[in-house]
């Protein structure tokens, strides 16, 4: 019986908790299933590309990153912060645990993929624009890796997106990215 009351209390908090977007209870319920499906898709990023590339990387957040690579690739993306499309990127990097250097540029892309340049030396800091929690093109907290030799593949899991997916069952949206009526006007 205690579990039922706890579940009802959590659901009530989700229904009546303030949301940054100002989503109404009606919106939260109407878009419940589509938002859970989209949040589930957000938990994983995949990118596949071809080009002159040599790369091997394992990463448990940008702070714990081991690898090296150089290349220019044409890629198909399904990546962080709902970037879907095609692009051409040019980059080189080396990293060992928490230090490294990187030059990464998305030269051309379709409209849903952010074009940007990231150049860094030393420790990657999560306050950089590219790691912005809500709109940044890269996820500082991602786990995964990249591997390539003429064919390049990236696979990453996003723990913040996973938390957003789980909390979404209780109508909480920590990423502030759930669908609302306003998005369709």
Please explain how this structure is put together.
The radius of gyration is 19 Å and the shape is globular. It has four helices and six strands. With 185 residues, it is of the alpha+beta class. A six-stranded antiparallel sheet has the order 5-4-3-2-1-6. Helix 3 packs antiparallel against helix 4. The model has no long low-confidence stretch (mean pLDDT 90). The chain folds into two domains: 47 residues, no CATH class; 114 residues, no CATH class. A hairpin with a 2-residue loop joins strand 3 and strand 4.
Question: How would you classify the helix and strand content by structural class?
Answer: alpha+beta
User: Which consecutive residue ranges, at least 5 long each, have pLDDT under 50?
Assistant: none
- Please state the CA-atom Rg, rounded to the nearest Å: 19 Å
So what's the overall shape?
Answer: globular
Number of domains: 2
Strand elements, count = 6
CA-to-CA gap between the ends? 43 Å
Number of helices: 4
Strand order of the largest sheet: 5-4-3-2-1-6
- The succession of helices and strands, N to C, reads HHHEEEEEEH
Percentage of residues in DSSP E strands: 35-45%
| Integer average pLDDT | 90
Q: Describe the largest sheet.
A: 6 strands, antiparallel
Proportion in helices: 10-25%
Describe how the helices and strands are arranged:
Elements: H1 2-16, H2 25-30, H3 32-42, E1 44-60, E2 65-79, E3 83-96, E4 99-109, E5 117-121, E6 143-157, H4 159-168
Helix pairs in contact: 3-4
């Amino acid at each position: 019986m205690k579990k039922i009351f706890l579940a009802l209390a959590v659901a009530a908090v989700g229904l009546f908790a303030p949301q940054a977007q100002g989503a109404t209870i009606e919106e939260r319920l109407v878009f419940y299933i589509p938002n859970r499906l989209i949040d589930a898709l957000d938990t994983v990023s995949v990118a596949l590309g071809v080009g002159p590339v040599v790369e091997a990387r394992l990463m448990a957040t940008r702070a714990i990153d081991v690898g090296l690579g150089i290349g220019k690739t044409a890629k198909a993306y399904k990546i962080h912060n709902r970037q879907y499309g095609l692009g051409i990127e040019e980059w080189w990097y080396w990293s060992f645990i928490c230090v490294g250097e990187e030059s990464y540029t998305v030269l051309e892309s379709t409209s849903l993929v952010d074009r940007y340049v990231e150049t860094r030396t030393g420790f990657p800091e999560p306050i950089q624009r590219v790691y912005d929690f809500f709109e940044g093109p890269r996820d500082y907290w991602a786990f995964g890796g990249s591997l390539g030799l003429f064919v390049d593949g990236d696979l990453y899991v996003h723990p913040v997106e996973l938390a957003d997916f789980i909390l979404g069952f209780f109508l909480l949206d920590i990423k502030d990215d759930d669908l609302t009526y306003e998005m369709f006007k």
